[in-house]
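Running co-folding for S-adenosylmethionine.
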Amino acid sequence: MATVSPSAKSSGEAPLTPKGRSARQMEDITQQLALQVSEQLPGILHELLQGGFDPDSQPLQLECSLTAGNGPRVSDNRLPVAAVHIGRDFSPFSARSTPLVGNKFSQDLASSQPLVENAQASFQAWNSRTSSHRPLPVSADAPPGNDGRPAKRVRKDIGQRRLGSNTDSTSVVREEESAIRKKRISDNPALQPSTFDKFIGGIWDSLYSGVRMDITEVIEQWQAIESSGQPKLLTDAEQGIAIRSDTGTFGRISILTRKISQASKTCRSLEVIIQAHWIQCFDERVNELSAEQTFDKAKRIAIAEACVDFDWSEKELRNKMAIWRGYHDIKTTGGWVALVFAGTGLYRFCKYRVSFSDETFGILRALRHRFEVAADTLHPRWRILLSIVGEPTEPKYKGHPHDWVVNGPGNEAIPLPQTYQQWDKNFSYIHLDSSIIDDEAWGPYDPRIVTPEDDPTASKCQSCGQTQSDSPPQNSCMCYTNLYGSMRAHMVPLQLFRTPNGKNNGLKACCPFETGLAVGEFVGQITSGLEGMDVMVGETHRATYQIWQGKQGNHTRFVNHSCQPNSHFERFIWLGKQRIVLVSEGIEADEEVTVDYGQTYWQNLDKECKCGHPGCRYQNRNRDLITPPEDE
Ligand SMILES: C[S@@+](CC[C@H](N)C(=O)[O-])C[C@H]1O[C@@H](n2cnc3c(N)ncnc32)[C@H](O)[C@@H]1O
């Protein structure tokens, strides 16, 4: 059961409490709220359904009540406003919200009256209206409330609620919305993520996608059109596909499409940067005018000035401003990075504002440096876009994405070597894409070879039986497509993070890894004969070797142990050579990636396990007890 409980506060007056106002006034406000909730609910519920919520499998009861003041929400302090049941046969277009006036909270839902059937309603408008602190005008032709009197319509107003300003009316709704979101994720993994999760997921997706934020891509095209009448994309196509063996029409159009898509993403990012910045300039203009005028007058003047400059009607401008205010809020909270890398859901996110809350924006704020690490290291030129609004363009985090350790909510990331200072002042780590052979141990021989290259069966996958190849037309093996073959991921969405419980660093997933998806190959130096160091032992029918990640390797070096892990190592053969692959057992976004190091590791380690799992096997342990008896 989900509860939506907006509370309201009137500005410059005594706090709104059931005792402080007459019952009649309260009833009026409650009715107006009921009307507004009823108007907005279809839109919100439509979003819910679009997000994959299945009312058949998990009916929801959505309730809205008015809470007095800032204090804790105790049930006897709540004035019920509306309720809607979302269950079997629910359609957002026929959603009926039950206005509940006074204390008639237990009123029979079946006797409810439909107030609106408008799925286009905007929640954001409701936010602004309920936080505007103005008397609410009455419209005679408004539909009747459930007491027979005409319900009152609330004047539309563009006064957007700024994040951080603690206007209770919205924050409580948002808390509840967020509770729904959490419940969905934790209680029913089959359900789709909420609007906010989608928004955050969209940022991570575009950060780890191959998209390049490069304004020169756009400029080049237009310069070429001006000089030759043709976009540079066409004349460049051959060069772009030179790396590919197939230089046919399909390759050519793929490169063109990639470049155009990148250019349009860059343009879109520029557009939202400038729109968010415009809001800031608008606010400054209003402040400037406020020196001589009342705030409301100053705002009206600024809007009028802008209408002339844009050549838009006031309505058009106000509609746009509502969305742009959302962009501005996102930028203020999550940084420019959140706006620039926002996915296609940005507009909807800002239009409906369903997920705009202090809590969700707290989450966004906490992610800022993590986004920046990914953006600066994977898209080093992205900040150049910010020069359009005069912001600094120098990347903050340079180098490889795993040269940085993200460090708790909202904190700046730390350079990797710094996190090993206390043990090794000269710590360094070379990031490898694939393992390298230690010449001293193996000479030119690769001990991972299972089937020599010249053997015709070397390209046959021993797991699926399909042909393996790095060339798309030849490859049919789909075992670990994000690691091997032509569909390799640009960069695996993982970050090094500072563990809060004394395990030093760990590995965190930025996006979900579904069960069976590769988290990475265990990459390092292929050696042998090392003692007293952490190594992975590989074994084929020809040789036993070690993979050492002390000085060089990849992100798998930072995976911590858990007694209830969410990944495991598997042996896999790619093109005749053994690989050791870390495979997900279902990892959620923002979750630490863990693996079971195994009993032998812990037996030889003079440390206690800090995995924190209730069934932890290596905490406060007597090492003798975990040594298996001889006959086992
Ligand atoms: C392969 S490293 C993992 C990354 C390591 N945490 C780091 O910061 O470099 C293995 C070491 O991490 C630490 N570690 C990993 N899992 C642990 C756990 N569950 N409890 C305590 N320490 C752990 C131990 O010091 C272990 O020797």
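Result summary
The chain has a mean pLDDT of 76.
Residues 503-506, 534, 557-558, 560-561, 605, 607, 609-611 surround S-adenosylmethionine (CB under 6 Å).
Job closed.
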